[in-house]
Amino acid sequence: SNPGTEEKPFATIQHAKDVVRGRIAKGLEENVTVVLRNGTYTLMQPLDFDISDSGTDSFTITYTAYPGENPVISGGRILGDWQVQTDGLWKCANPFQSENLKEISELFINGRRATRARTPNQGYLHVASVAEDRMSSFQFAAGDIPEDLEVDRLELVFIHDWSISRVPVKKIDYAANILYPKSKIGRQHPMMVIDGYEKNPRYYLENDRRFCDTPGEWFQDKDGDICYFPLQIEDMQKIMAVVPELDYLIKVEGTESEAGFVKNLHFKGLTFEFSRYCIPDDGYAGVQATWHQSHEGTGFDKGWRAYVPAALRFERARDCRVSEATIRHMGGAGVMIGSRCRQVLLLNSVLTDISGNGIMIGESSDRLTQDKAWWIVAPEEAASGNAITGCLIENCGTRFFGAIGIWVGMANQTQINQNEIRQLPYTGVSVGWMWSPQTTPCRANIVENNYIHHVMQVLSDGGGIYTLGLQPGTVLRNNLIHDVPVNAGRAESNGMFLDEGTTAIRIENNLIYNIARSPLRFHRAGKNEVAQNMFGNAPGIPLVRYNNTPVENISLDNNREFDQTSSDQSIIEKEIKTRSAIVGPPNTVRSLKIE
Predict the structure, then answer these.
(1) How wide is the angle at C-alpha 364 spanned by C-alphas 360 and 370, nearest 5°?
(2) Is the per-residue pLDDT at 574 higher than 90?
(3) Domain ranges of the chain
């Protein structure tokens, strides 16, 4: 085998990792750098890093791109041997033999996420009426759903106010125009009944041959094979077709003891692509921010809630970083900086085309320690001092519309700064995970100098920035937020939505405009400070909406307001120019260099 020199490099990352592990075992005396040359490194299994792969307090382990090259770490499987069918579609046999890989949810053609065949092609169908329990079935309008569908693999996508459900279809009664899902739509909570937010709520159906009527669409047939309707410009003998195979690409995980945390492990200049996530057999019932409830009431973390997992995972890690990375085409979330992580940094990177959340920091309240909620008995375990800086985060939530660009749960001293966050179906940044002013480890999180726009493109009841709970020391400042629409759901969305329990947060020097409803909204909030902000607003819409929040709870100091419907845009232009040195103009965040 090659010795791992520039002239004769190792063939695989795993081999290089094993060699580095041997050096670590002997005791590090200098920094170690693994240089990846150009090309795609297709993983047969994820790369798991533990204490045996760790740097030390004095020396780092770095996996980096060769200067000027673009190594790609892939969790995908390339498809070949496409055969044309009599109806003009092309078919490829399912390459996966193991039972847990047979369900395919995503297909990528030449680096583009292909559209899973659906009806309608654009927009939504609307429920006509609901069953008595408002969860187990609904009536559809005659003619909305084509007959002779193969229900074995048919999936219902249902829109709630701030989340969605994805549920397999059990049967369709065309005589009565009733659709029966395999399990109840929504979670087992009265808030998530079918008609809880819209009289005639929105839905669509995916994955059937009858829906595959537009070039660029695909479906998985009853035999599990993949059928694709190519674009006119595509040569099926030359296309690069990929389906994700691995659940994640990289996991960095230390031991329970702090002495066993992974430290000073760095990844620089690498591209990560293609991870998979399959919904539970009985469906995905979204709660919030892609946390969801299985219908049996069990979750991944001993609680009743599960989450859509990430492709890059950090748990019990310290002083690790990912920089100048591209993270794309993921079937779950992008990056998870989880339990007990300290000073883990994501810098100057691009996250795009992510099915779930872009980035997750911290964790929920569900994990148990000594059979009790961890945040009560061991609050020191909260993720602390982590940062997301200089990143472009876009097109997340492509499959799970309730996803967030950056989600911060139970965490403290998080820094979210100088990022551009755009083109999301739901909220841009979410901080906090307690729906009351109860004391938790969530505090002193700083969200500043971010450019957040064109969010809330599908769902409702969110905003550019969203918060929950008591957070002493948390500050939202110098952010530029615009273009937040109002959708068909019950609730409005806002520039910033300070939701239940939000207390002790300071909101200062932000510019918020082109918001379809109020720039700020408080819901069951405690005392907070709002100072020196500039708000664009429309006539007849209150600057601040107080939902079940006493007006005296919110301190307003030296804020300015302008009519955003005015033809005179000089105010906005001046304010953007003032802030451009901080946040950067659109599409240039990637050029920032944070060391």
Answers:
(1) 135
(2) no
(3) 80-242, 426-595
Q: What percent of the chain has pLDDT over 90?
A: 81
Buried b (16+ CB within 10 A) or exposed e, 48-79: ebebebbbeeebbbbbbbeeeeebbbbbbbeb
pLDDT at res. 298: 45
Distance CA 242, CA 111 (A): 8
pTM comes to 0.95
Spell 143-174 as b/e; 16+ CB within 10 A means b: ebbeeebebebbbbbbbbbbbbbbbbbeebee
Measure CA of the first residue to CA of the last residue in the chain; give whole Å: 36
What are the beta bridge partners of residue 40?
A: 72
Please say if the pLDDT value at position 3 is more than 90: no
* pLDDT confidence of residue 584: 47
Q: How many helices (H) and strands (E) does the chain have?
A: 3, 60
Dmax over CA atoms of the chain, in Å, equals 76
| DSSP code string of 462-498 | -EEEEE-SB-TT-EEES-EEEEE---SSSS--EEEEE
What is d(CA 456, CA 376) in angstroms, rounded to the nearest whole number?
Answer: 33
Q: Phi and psi at residue 259, in whole multiples of 5°?
A: -65, -20
Task: Tell me if 226 sits within 8 A of 91, measured CB to CB.
Answer: yes
Q: What share of the chain is helix, strand, coil (3-state, %, to 5)?
A: 10, 40, 50
Residue 224 · residue 102 · CB < 8 Å: yes
Contact assessment for residue 243 and residue 42, using Cβ atoms and an 8 Å cutoff: no
* Per-residue confidence (pLDDT) for residue 590, from 0 to 100: 35
Kindly indicate the confidence band of residue 586, based on its pLDDT and cuts at 50, 70 and 90: very low
CB-based contact 305:299 (threshold 8 Å): yes
